[in-house]
Amino acid sequence: MHAHADASAFDGPARKVLSQIVASEVADGRIPGAVIVAGTAEGQSWQLVQGNRMLRPHIEPMTSNTVFDLASLTKVVATTTAIMQLVERGKLNLAEPVARYWPAFGANGKAQITVQQLLSHTSGLPAEPPDLAVPATGAKRDALLRRIANLEPVAMADERTLYSDVNFVVLGELVTRVTGLQLDAYCRKFIFAPLGMKDTAFLPDATRSARSAPTTANSRGLRQGRVHDPLASALRGVAGNAGLFSTASDLARFAQMLLHDGLASSDGTASAASHPVRVLTSESIVRMAVPQAVVTSPPWRGLGWELYAPLAPNRYRLPPVGAIGHTGFTGTGMWIDFVTRRFLIVLTNRVHEGEQGDAMPLRAQTLALLSSGGPPVSSQQIARTLPPVRIALEQAARLPSARGPVRTGIDVLAAQGFDMLSGMHVGLVTNRSGFDAAGRRTVDVLLHAPHVELIRLFSPEHGLNIDADEAVGDSIDPSSGLQVHSLYGQANRFAPGALDGLDALVFDMQDAGVRFFTYETTLGYALEATAAAHIPLVVLDRPNPLGADRFGGPSLDAGHESFTGYFSLPLQHGMTVGELAALFNDARHIGADVRVVPMEGYLRSMRFADTGLGWIPISPNLRTLSALDLYPDIALLEGANVSVGRGTPHPFEWIGAPWIDGKALAARLNDAHADAHFETVDFVPAESTFHGRLCHGVQISRTQPDRVPGKLGLTIVATLHAMYPQVFDLAATRDAIGSTEIQAAIERSRAPDDLQTLIARDADAFRPLRQRFLRY
């Protein structure tokens, strides 16, 4: 699993940003302080210690050797490691029923639950014992374990992933039953001592308790050096689900061991070059990093660990494999990336002031900061690093099938026996968004169509696989063996001679329904190229995902056409790609032979979710239908000095910048009644505008399903200009807004009603032209 470790993300600027992140979270009362360590397999790169570990009854500053209650990190650092060691030594078999090792556990329908199902949280056991909502009735440890052994499942094994503390309490008990050692004694002897983890233990002694970060108080006083988790507390502080205490430096040793394929030096230091001690085999680590079941949406889980995409700038666009991680309720987190060979440890006691504390923003922003350094990672790199994940990557890449009333152009063409293309040599403009009702690429459908010879492929922006966010070169499609000619590389048009030898060019891609989405310009260029080559353009129609009944927003000024605006359309045109082809051809007097294969079962009022068609991301940052819904409005900010959420989990749903006051902006926008609700959010984009910098801004959620196209986006632009006239780059929004008159109105701070009047006028002007080309 070896790959090159890039430490560039750990240099001076990143430290400054990280300090800003922690300071902001402390100031907002989410955490009292934090210790954060990030490093590579070869050694620790940097550590940040900031804030306080204790605020009451007196203040104690955070220190690098602060001991933290790891909460659920216990599951992976202690319990999972112990179980995998015992599997390696033949003491346990993952495929065997748990009842083989703990006979009483087989009661009440649990006789066939396996060790592996416990590790992967697919056992069907409840999250916690139902009668332990409030612990501490003084139940004896043995009595509590008997109650756990008698629990009934709440789901069938392997039916679904159900994260469960009970699973790991049982696993901790298995360690004791097969070794004769209590879990704490076993881990001390076989994990912590070999790794030199001197401050890692269940039930820390008085010295370590004195420098631990306290959590909340109970009837016995402040829990400092005493476990916070109620189930582990009821089990006297030693349990498979929680109870472990440790420091950042100890956990760094553990992370480096995993990155060294399970080896550590005999003194527990990061380098395993001399006198190596094997803690785990490479095979065990791979099993922890490989999905046990690939579900339709994350999270995916390995054995013990949750799976994550590598810590790379494009991590939000990758399948969640290549790295492992886990978090803890008290505010802890740990991630190990086998592709970039880096790790991150975030430790805080967010529950110290009460359980309203929140470590999630800190963890998310720190992960994004670390990810923003270094080059993007590809699925191929992940597969080379962890070959067994190839199956999961292939499953994640499968196209969905249709489950609704609409048949798109490719399905109608197939139902007609491909008569329109019979006897022809054809080229195809497409990407992954072109597929049929069975989830087969249009490439493959045409490749096997009778009496049709597909000989050439063309791909738009983002490439054939919709995974590139930069210029794309020509390539070979590995499945068909056909050459793919890029229409978003050195040139965006069809090269001279590109259509030679073709009898027809087929166009099949899912459009966004927005004026500046470049697939529409590629459609226009296809019309021009086929007209020049005197061959027909066959357009396989697809829905307008925003609805083909709604149009409006600022229109592009005539004479300002570009690759992000092929024709003077309003922001949302309310047309299908087949209808657009006819409009472009007529209005621009192209003279192409346009042949549209219309959809069946489609109504103009349908949104994409109504069609029953399978959805896939139609660009790297239009990954969800909620993002697409906001895209026409929020993309009006593109080009300006504002992040629109690219390089985050929520592109086009978050906006921000280092210079924005998120609370003030949210208040102004909520007062503006812009058909949406705004809440403050801080984030660090891993790529694109302000990548690697802390941004303050707002998260956006729609409140009106039937809204005026462009109203939300123009309201945001106008509000930013009014609040920050000397900072916000209004001029950079010119190309996206398209209308010089509307932008000038914003610059003059015209009233919102005046902007709406201008927008309505543009829509009225477009209405009769649009009406001529509607098919549905």
Automatic annotation (TrEMBL):
Record SUPFAM superfamilies: beta-lactamase/transpeptidase-like
Record-annotated Peptidoglycan beta-N-acetylmuramidase NamZ C-terminal domain positions: 630-776
InterPro entries for this protein: Beta-lactam-related, Beta-lactam/transpept-like, NamZ, NamZ_C, NamZ_N
Residue intervals of the Beta-lactamase-related domain: 19-360
Name of a matching Pfam family: NamZ_N
Residue ranges of every copy of the Peptidoglycan beta-N-acetylmuramidase NamZ N-terminal domain listed in the record: 426-625
Protein name from the UniProt record: Exo-beta-N-acetylmuramidase NamZ domain-containing protein
UniProt organism field: Paraburkholderia azotifigens
